[in-house]
Every structure is written in structure tokens, then in C-alpha cells.
Amino acid sequence: MHVLRESDYVPVPWKNGGGLTREILRVPPDGASFDWRLSLATIATAGPFSAFEGYERTLVLVRGRGVELDFGPHGRSTLNAPGQVAAFDGAWSTGCTLIDGPCTDLNLIVARERAAAQAGILRLTAPEMIRTSGWEEILVCCVAGSVRIQNATGELATLSSVDVARCAPGDAAMPCSPHGPDPALLLVACLRRRVA
Predict the structure, then answer these.
(1) DSSP string across 92-128
(2) Helix, strand, or coil here: 178?
(3) Which of 2, 46, 68, 92 has the highest CB neighbour count under 10 A?
């Protein structure tokens, strides 16, 4: 288990030049294409999203009053509370409107032909087990609140908002519990490369 903190995320320009995102991780770490990438973006103004042909995108609202996403013929989606998710084809023409001021979101982008992924939001009110078997890596991203997570060797980490625990199959079944009186929201993303 390797813990990634918000202060270490690397700012990079949006693909379309419309803003900045802070890259949390990318696999592989170099080159224009990637199998998967997790980033944290602040949306300061309305406008179009970058196009990612051949990728699936999962966007999770973390901070702010929310966004409205317009996918044209594919419909619309409104995110107005932390932990709400929009999953969509990265090639879709996507416009974004702010509901009331800037917002911050987590973006998971996965290459459709090179990688398999399962991602979802876990609302943690009591201890639960997160299992890593069968996946190349598991990303446990704290969206809201605070959590404690422990791996198979007994290593214990505390995650606060937008911290990420990057876990491997050897971390096994990991107990994860809220840290503090409030429930925690987690994005749990399971990822692996497809066999050629």
C-alpha cells in the first residue's frame, strides 16, 4: 500500500488547454497514452471537457455546489453533492456548466481496449473489508470524511479528503473504517490490464 497525498499531486494542463488538473497517478507513468489515469481537477468556469477517444471516464464531485454535464444526444447529468458520479464515454462531446461557483472533481480515465475497471462509491459508516485479489491495483480515494485502512502486513494509514491509497494484490483483504464521528465517502477503483 502506497499513500498519495494532495500536496504531492502534479499540476498539468487540460488536454484542450481550458484549465489545470492535478495528476495523482498514470499507468504507465510516461508517454501521451495511458492505461489508466486518476486526477483531481478544479473547474473554475463553464466550458467543454477535453475529448478522450477510446477511454471511459468516471467523474466524482468532491467539492463545490456542483456541475451540470451536457452530453448532447447522449443526455445530461447533474452532480450536486460530494460523491455523486457520472460515467461516460471519453469521446462524447461534453459541455460543463457550474451550478454555483468553482468545483473540484476526481477523474478516473481508463483505456477501453487495454484495461478493465470497476469503480464505485462506498459510503462507510462502519468497518468494511476491501479485497484486492484478482486486480492489478485498487485505488481507495477518500472523497469526504476520513478513513483508516490497514493492509495484510499490518501497515495502517489514515486518509483525508482526496488522499489515495494505492493498493496491490498482496495487500489482501484490507479493513477500512471511518475515522471520526461522521460517515466517509470513498471512490474504490479496481484496475487491471487486459491480456493481449
Answers:
(1) S--EEEESSS-EEEEEEEEETTTEEEEEEEEEESS-E
(2) strand
(3) 92
User: How would you classify the pairing of strands 67-70 and 128-131?
Assistant: unpaired
Cβ-contact 85, 60 below 8 angstroms: yes
How crowded is residue 134: how many other Cβ atoms within 10 Å of its Cβ? 9
Positive or negative CA dihedral for 109, 105, 22, 145?
Answer: negative
* d(C-alpha 165, C-alpha 45), whole Å: 30
- pLDDT at site 171: 85
Of residues 175 and 31, the one with the higher pLDDT is 175
| Rounded (5°) CA angle 128-132-133 | 125
Task: Name the residue among 74, 33, 44, 41 with its Cα closest to residue 60.
Answer: 41
Identify the pLDDT of residue 44.
87
For the sheet containing 156-159, what is the strand order? 128-131, 173-178, 147-150, 156-159
pTM, rounded to two decimals? 0.91
3-class DSSP state for residue 118? strand
Q: Average pLDDT over the chain, rounded to whole?
A: 91
Query: What residue ranges define each of the domains in the chain, with the CATH number in brackets?
Result: 7-111 (2.60.120.10), 115-193 (2.60.120.10)
